[in-house]
């Protein structure tokens, strides 16, 4: 087996590992109010660890649109007598412009921070999302290796 075939195999296996065989996007679904609940930040769960939570307050659900959301109420102080709330779910359809973003919005006379993201389980706590950058760096390294040998 030549070096080119080995490197191609490594790249294919890497891409399969990154995709984890998923063809559909999933989103976290939960709601917490104030200091109570498991939905608030910091959100340190994954799709396996949520199964250990008593009463299943956080779930993972398929999302046909491929877009997840996270909304946090009460970002400028208490939203009401119950304090702030965090809500994570699937968007029924993608935003018109197709752009991921976070913004302050006013919903039911309350200022909230609404984040829209595209990707599997992306509505966890804000992350740096280095996945695509890592993939580009990896492929660049493979290309340099092929040209070197």
From TrEMBL:
Primary localization class, coarse: membrane
PANTHER family listed in its UniProt record: ATILLA, ISOFORM B-RELATED-RELATED (PTHR33562), PROTEIN QUIVER (PTHR33562:SF22)
GO cellular component, one term: side of membrane
GO term, biological process aspect, one: regulation of synaptic transmission, cholinergic
InterPro entries associated with the record: QVR-like, Sleep_regulator
Transmembrane segments: 131-148
Domain of life: Eukaryota
Species whose genome carries this gene: Folsomia candida
Cleavable signal peptide: 1-21
Subcellular localization(s) per the UniProt record: Membrane
Protein name: Uncharacterized protein
Alphabetized Pfam families for the sequence: QVR (PF17064)
Membrane topology: Lipid-anchor; GPI-anchor
Keyword tags: Glycoprotein, GPI-anchor, Lipoprotein, Membrane, Signal, Transmembrane, Transmembrane helix
């Amino acid at each position: 087996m030549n070096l080119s075939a080995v490197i191609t195999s490594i790249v294919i296996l890497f891409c399969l590992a990154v995709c984890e065989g998923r063809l559909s996007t999933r989103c976290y679904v939960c709601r917490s109010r104030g200091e109570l609940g498991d939905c608030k930040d910091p959100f340190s769960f994954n799709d396996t660890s949520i199964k250990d939570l008593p009463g299943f307050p956080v779930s993972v659900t398929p999302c046909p649109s491929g877009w997840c959301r996270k909304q946090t109420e009460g970002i400028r102080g208490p939203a009401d007598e119950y304090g702030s709330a965090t809500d994570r779910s699937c968007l029924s359809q993608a935003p018109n412009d197709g752009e991921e973003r976070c913004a302050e919005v006013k919903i039911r006379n309350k200022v909230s921070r609404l984040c829209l993201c595209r990707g599997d389980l992306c509505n966890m706590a804000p992350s740096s999302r280095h996945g695509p950058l890592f993939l580009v760096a990896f492929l660049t390294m493979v290309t340099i290796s092929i040209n070197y040998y």
